[in-house]
Amino acid sequence: MKLNKKLNQLGTETAFAVSAEAKSWSEKGHKVFPFHLGDINIMTPENIREATIKYLNDKKNGYCDSKGVPELRDVLSHDVGSKRGVRYNIDNVVIQPGGKPTIWKFLATTMNEGDEVLYPNPGYPIYESQIRYQGGIPIPYSYDETETGFAIDIEKLRSSITNRTTAFIYNNYQNPLSASSSIDEMEALAELAIENDLWVLSDDAYYEIRYNDESPLSIVNIPGMKERTIILYTFSKRFAMTGWRIGASIGPKKIIEQIARFNVNDESCTNHFIQHALAETLEDSSPYSEKILSELKDRRDLCIASLNSIEGINVPKPDSTFYLFPNITSVMESKDCNDLDAFRIKALKATGVSFCTRNHFGKPKNNETDQYIRLAYSGINNSDIKEGLALLKAWIEE
Q: How far from each other are the two terminal CA atoms of the chain, in whole angstroms?
């Protein structure tokens, strides 16, 4: 019996493959320091958990509107809009079972087979996977390493746009680079989108994971962008709810209505009781999210200090997300290793430190020569961060 040929185009989230390797190593009796997966080992806020139990016991366990319960859509429209300096209402919001559904539903709504879609590389691997699976042509755009982090190569991005380009996927506060756009960079991206009449998917998964006092920037705030941009929103990072599987698509009504049609055809609706709980608690949950952010900031600072003490590593301190993307080119040379995946496996077996590499976030370009790894500090406690990175340092410098 035959299977769908399109399955050959379907990728995966490669961090989960690294997670399986780490689990296997742990089951053999070795201690593993899990820097590989962007999960969060912090408890979901108590008020959200208690409200969820209340609504579950109140029989909010059946079907609901495929767009989501009106109470959550309403409160979320005001929360997201006010933080980005724009106005949304209930018609601009459709609830999703997590963040990923917005990616494929956005593409299924705005992209025809053969259309080109710009996506970041290095970047979240599901972008490319979904573009290919749905018959689009993925066109990667890249970042340049600077003294303060990473910046989009605007001119190369501009040269990648053709008359077949239909959409642009933008992940400010980016996974895996922790890259944050300046206002000049964001305005240049908006100009390209408007000039070329592109739909934009703004992946805002890490919008609230910011460690300085500056207000986060959103591309929807730039004139002409709100009308062409869909926001991928998720509660996973803000409230440590990775396993709850709830998020939203937010944007122009005519797109939201089509995404809601996919909801009907796919999952019918998102969990009823969780939606009611979030509708009740969202406006009062800032102290809880600030506590989560404070814990992540402490971990970031410890990671930065530990990594920068290693000979051959110099990591700028990012202001967003919970990832670090150190350049380890000279480290690999000192270890007489020219294969990034081999280096990763050697590090795991020698130290127990498990991490992803640049290769897990898109195929490297032909002219790439520098080597990078990604460490996530959201799922590992301070004591294990200190112990694990000390072992990594000793192994690298031996």
A: 55
